[in-house]
Amino acid sequence: MSNQSREWVSRSLASVWHPCTQMQHHETTPLIPVSHGRGAWLYDHDGRRYLDAISSWWVNLFGHANPRINAALRDQLEKLEHAMLAGFTHEPVIELSERLSAATNHHLGHAFYASDGASAVEIALKMSFHSWRNRGRNEKQEFVCLQGSYHGETIGALAVTDVALFKDAYGPLLRAAQTVMSPDARQAVDGETAQDVARRAAGDVERLFQQKSEKIAAIIIEPLVQCAAGMAMHDPLYLQLVRELCDRYGVHLILDEIAVGCGRTGTFFACEQAGVRPDFLTLSKGISGGYLPLSVVLSTDDVYQAFYSADVTRGFLHSHSYTGNPLACRAALATLDIFREDDVLAANQSLADRITTALAPLRGHARVKHFRQRGMIWAFDATDVDNTFSRRFFANATQNELLLRPIGSTVYLMPPYILTDDDVHVLADRTLAVFEQTIAG
Ligand SMILES: Cc1ncc(COP(=O)(O)O)c(C=O)c1O
């Protein structure tokens, strides 16, 4: 490492508290100071490059320093960087809301904005509870989440998250949620199919609703892929069955598409594959192309009408300073333009096929189980590895020009949608090489 890089690292370690990190680990695992990004690649100050195979925590869709998003942002910078959204409005937020509504066939026609995913989850939970309350159903105060669910790190979002590592320390601060069986297809036993697992998991929801649906405001689900749980994938049937149960028992369905939305699973919204519509849909991450913090909660007219009143206290009095930030909305509009102009969902199908083909040696590897794919997400579980696997894999990957961070023993790929054929080969060949190096110890 050059002296310049060393200096950035020591200044960062002295002053920046890095996310999701035991800072002491940086005594042995080097921090990488990024100088710039281009396309799918990040570059450090010493000219080394890293293929961003997890889209910088699943946010980047069309590459770093994308010329089209850059141009839109430059244009917006000269017009309006920010204006508060209470009492005022502006073109980017209006256009974005209209286009998102149209993307749901106007079923989810009311867009409420925040900055990060966890804030969107908080909003959806509060809106669900408050809309029931406004309708005289004050007893509906509980939320249901899935085993292995992940919805963010704020106190409310963590309450509906089921990842012990993130949650346990804060247990005393959290309001308990009901946890139901995950529909994770890996749980199939005795010749069960993924659909059988989905039916079994929906049965668990039904039992809970039978017991106490009058107390339950909403169930929150990451549709098709529970990402932070280790890319646990389920059959779309699960979403259909839960939607029916929500209708039958009067419970809101919140679909958290923060990670799986924006084309990640093959359709623009994951729930399209099940043909279901939620009462609330949360989006963030990819919606701004990975440029700026933006999240949004889309809700139905039915929910919206529960708040519409002359009485101020029946309104949804939630706010964030940067709600509907024009720059972030403009980045989102540029992102949606790319989807349309480049027919991205169709192009991703052939890109995904090429990546799956290139990953064939891993699929058949003796130390790999549950190789799985949906849209632009690939994952597999390493067998017989210890709990240092993930950190060792990450370190070996960076030595091989790859940015990959396994979750426990699950290696996953969630690359941007703009990989070239060369990138695909680097991705597949190096992932295999790094995997073999890491399992060898
Ligand atoms: C499904 C899901 N919901 C919510 C969040 C939280 O989003 P943020 O990290 O922007 O708060 C994440 C983040 O990974 C997520 O994957």
From TrEMBL:
UniProt GO MF annotations: adenosylmethionine-8-amino-7-oxononanoate transaminase activity; pyridoxal phosphate binding
Reactions catalysed according to its record? (8S)-8-amino-7-oxononanoate + S-adenosyl-L-methionine = S-adenosyl-4-methylsulfanyl-2-oxobutanoate + (7R,8S)-7,8-diammoniononanoate
Task: Using the UniProt record, name the top-level EC class of this enzyme in a single word.
Answer: transferase
Which co-factor is required? pyridoxal 5'-phosphate
Q: Which GO terms describe its cellular component?
A: cytoplasm
**Which PROSITE patterns does the record associate with it?**
AA_TRANSFER_CLASS_3
User: Which pathway does the protein contribute to?
Assistant: Cofactor biosynthesis; biotin biosynthesis; 7,8-diaminononanoate from 8-amino-7-oxononanoate (SAM route): step 1/1
Ligand binding (pyridoxal 5'-phosphate): 117-118, 256, 320-321
Keyword Transferase in record: yes
Site (Participates in the substrate recognition with KAPA and in a stacking interaction with the adenine ring of SAM): residue numbering on this chain: 20
Compartments annotated for it: namely:
Cytoplasm
Q: Which residues bind substrate?
A: 57, 150, 285, 319, 405
EC assignment:
2.6.1.62
Family from the record: Belongs to the class-III pyridoxal-phosphate-dependent aminotransferase family. BioA subfamily.
Enumerate the NCBIfam families for this protein.
Answer: bioA, PRK05964.1
Q: Tell me, what does this protein do in biology?
A: Catalyzes the transfer of the alpha-amino group from S-adenosyl-L-methionine (SAM) to 7-keto-8-aminopelargonic acid (KAPA) to form 7,8-diaminopelargonic acid (DAPA). It is the only aminotransferase known to utilize SAM as an amino donor.
The name of this protein is: Adenosylmethionine-8-amino-7-oxononanoate aminotransferase
Organism equals Pseudoduganella plicata
